[in-house]
Amino acid sequence: REKDESVAANMRQYGMSSYYLDVVVSDFSYPLWRADLRIDAIVTDPPYGIREATERIGTMKINPVIEEHQATSHIPSKIVYGLNQIYKDLLCFSAKHLRLQGRLVCWYPLFRDQYVEDQLPAHSCLELIANSEQVLSNYTSRRLLTYKKVKEPEATDESVIMNLVDFREKYFALREETRKEKRTRKAAERAKRREEWERSNKEVTER
User: Where is the segment annotated Disordered (predicted)?
Assistant: First the structure.
């Protein structure tokens, strides 16, 4: 990144430098905040696995052991952090830590031809109050969703996340299919031009 590409630079651009405190780098799947933390608003663009990795700390091993001599240089292993789980964690975190009437604002990726409002992330403590679309391509878009916290969570409250597991896989499959279509179209165009050129040469020769 360039020097002017940062959270601090963005806040300077909008004249909000006085609100800037610092940046924390952590694993969102392992919350580090106190249970009584309360936030007025959360604005976020979760990773979709397209330009950035969707990973979290974890291992597939059962009862992993780190030897004492490895502790100082140990780098935690990572596993896939699926979109479903990312949004579930985000909504649960928001329901827990937002103040009443606080806001969660987040982007949500989807395929345009499959969009129905019922598929959007939902939580019994959060009310969806705004929903707008940003078109990304002929096939994909992302929705800017704004939720308002309407009640404190209880044991029975939960989030509902529709199936986003295949978004990344389908995105890249669609891109590959589009590339093949372009290659096929260009090959057909070249063949047509070659045929026209040969026909033109033949007509000139016959004259």
Answer: 178-207
Sheet (strand 39-44) strand order? 39-44, 98-111, 140-149, 126-135, 122-123, 159-160
Confidence of residue 98 (pLDDT cuts 50, 70, 90): very high
Q: What is the DSSP string of 61-115?
A: SSS----GGGGGG----EEE--HHHHHHHHHHHHHHHEEEEEEEEEEEEEEGGG-
In whole angstroms, give the CA distance from residue 72 to residue 94: 34
Q: Could you read off the pLDDT of 127-152 as tens digits, one per residue? A: 999 999 999 888 889 999 999 999 99
Note the pLDDT of residue 143.
94
- The Cα 194–Cα 190 span in angstroms is 6
- Is residue 91 one of the residues assigned to a domain? yes
Q: Are residues 137 and 106 in the same domain?
A: yes
| Any domain includes 14 | no
| CATH number of the domain enclosing 138 | 3.40.50
161-to-50, 96, 123, 179 alpha-carbon distances in Å = 20, 17, 9, 31
Coil, strand, or helix at residue 186? Answer: helix
Asked, for residue 184, whether it belongs to a domain, the answer is yes
**What is the tally of structural domains in the chain?**
2
pLDDT tens per residue across span 12-35: 999 999 999 999 888 888 888 999
pTM of the model: 0.71
